[in-house]
Amino acid sequence: MGIQGNASSLKPYKNPNPHHSLPLPLSLLLLILLIYPNPPLSASVELNPDHQASLLLFKSWLQDPNQALSTWVGFNCTSWAGLTCHNQTGWLISLNLTAINLSGPLHPMLCMITTLETLVLSRFSGDIPGTFVKLRHLRELLLNGNQGLGGFLPSWIGNFSKKLEKLDLSSNMFRGKIPKVCFTWNHLNIWILETIICWEMLVSFINLGYLNLGSNELSGTLPCFSASVESLSVLNLANNSIVGGIPTCIASLRSLSRLNLSSNGLKYEISPRLVFSEKLLVLDLSFNDLSGPLPSKIAETTDKSGLVLLDLSHNQVSGEIPSRITELKSLQALFLSHNLLTGEIPARIGNLTYLQVIDLSHNSLSGSIPSNIVGCFQLLALILNDNNLYGEIQPELDALDSLKILDISNNKISGEIPLTLAGCKSLEVVDFSCNNLSGALNDAITKWQNLRFLSLARNKFNGALPNWLFTFQMMQAMDLSGNRFSGFIPDGNFNISLNFNYNDIGPRTPEEPLITIQDPEIKAFATVAGSNELSFNYDLFSTVGIDLSGNLLHGEIPAGLFGLQGLEYLNLSYNFLDGQIPGLEKMQRLRILDLSHNSLSGQIPENISSLRNLTLLNLSYNCFSGIVPKEQGYWRFPGAFAGNPGLCVESSGGKCEMASIPTVPAKAFKEEMEDGPISVWVFGVSAIVSFYSGVVSMFCSARARNYIMQTKV
């Protein structure tokens, strides 16, 4: 429905011949525009007959499964969905057909409605009709999100309307180079003045304030947009194929508040002369091939304004993090991951008191985590994994009581987990794996009641596993593998975790990816809304599982552990566990079960073969005995019973084949499993961890935590 406004006292102009549209007399037109610079709207407006005819032709080419345009009958403009008309003339001035499930090509007759000022379309296909050049009064043109709309950007895109203020062609299928625009404008004022203007750029609208061409197939180099130097505030060219360097003229866009050039092919060093104004809030240059050092100054800043989000992740930037980065007082999110940065974390990083997200992962940073970092008291995510950091975890980190993600994995951090870390009561994702941490698990961890993911793998922790280990209600994945924990697996209350006990046992699709505990994926979303407010959230993708492999645990496996209906991954390999395997009939979501290299005995439970989601099974190198019948389908798991000399595995010919011990266990085990459905790495990693210390180091250095940061302008 059209927007309704106050009715005017002027009588509407009547066309003497409704079958032939005639323009208003110039004097009357000027009078209307002077009195009503923003056209008045009415609850009842008669739609211009020619505009009605053009709209019906436009509709005839569309697919409208929801009958959203069933209201397009008669001449009452306000009853036509998506239309707004001029109160006095009946001219169509706005057409908004987004999010109503329309599809189809654009009929060229739509462009005969030259009075249009706003055009918003989505889910259309084909090329942009050349008749769009007739829409010379357009102020807003939004054609985003049309996966079938493509072809080369037409050369007239920068010439058809001098009034255009907002252009959004994002998430389409446009391709090719950004056109070089050279055209003539005739400006009508008191006299006619002809001016010839040539730009090597896409857009040449003097009043353009918003340009979104993200997620297309645009190529070529980055233009300067100098015609919009005073007006352009939002520029999004992300997810294209733009190459070359970043021209310093981009920084001359004085009104620019959001710049997103991520996921292109930009190269070379960032010029030290590329310094943006204090109005810039968002700068996203991630996922390019930029190199060289970080500029010591990338934007002006004041006490009240400046950068809120800076993202240079996934480039080839090298050298140290400049200390002047701590002068960006308004900064709330800093993403510098996946680069070649060296040196230490700036000691004064705590001066950035508004920081909510710090991601410096996957670099070559050294030194310790500065104690000054607690000055970032609003911090929600501290991600420092895959560097060369050393020293101990600072007890002062307890001041970060809003922290949700703490990842210092794959560094050289030593010492124990401080008791004071109980103050970080908001923690949800904690990864301390692949370090030199030691000591027993203390009760500080029990204060992290929102914990969803905990990895202490491949450290030097020791002592008994505490009774509270399985008491986290939101826990999704726990990895304590590759340590020196001893004693029994605590037989506690296994019914607390909602994820461990999730009882939806629907079958998995073959295409559904297997995301192991060792390599979860975290998608973080940082959005700057309004003037300077950052919104941060994340999604955790990980197998629901428990990994206690590669320790010194002994005794029987608690029966409650095998009653967890939501568990997808269970690895207890390379311990000294004994007794028999309890019933597994409740574990219908289980996909990976590794109990290898223990002292388990008795017969192989028949109900294991009934686990329809089970993809990987490894019971090798135990003391199992008896017969494994062929009808149980264990042929799906080659090598699963190796190293059980008392076990008879029935072959396809009905013969009994003893599960003998290979001469070189680890080598033979790997060879047997290479032809299996999943690489031996998935379930045999604990073997490597426990017995081959050289390979442990290789494994830790090769692991990659997948933090995928997504920013929105």
UniProtKB/TrEMBL annotation:
Pfam families named in the record: LRR_1, LRR_4, LRR_8
Does the keyword section mention Transmembrane?
yes
Q: Which UniProt keywords apply?
A: Leucine-rich repeat, Membrane, Receptor, Repeat, Signal, Transmembrane, Transmembrane helix
Query: What residue intervals traverse the membrane?
Result: 680-702
Tell me the first and last residues of the signal peptide.
Answer: 1-42
The question of whether Repeat is a record keyword is answered with: yes
- Which chain positions lie within coiled-coil regions? none
Cite the PANTHER family for this sequence: DNA DAMAGE-REPAIR/TOLERATION PROTEIN DRT100, L DOMAIN-LIKE PROTEIN
Q: What is this protein called?
A: Leucine-rich repeat receptor-like protein CLAVATA2
Please tell me the species this chain comes from. Answer: Vitis vinifera
Gene designation = CLV2_0
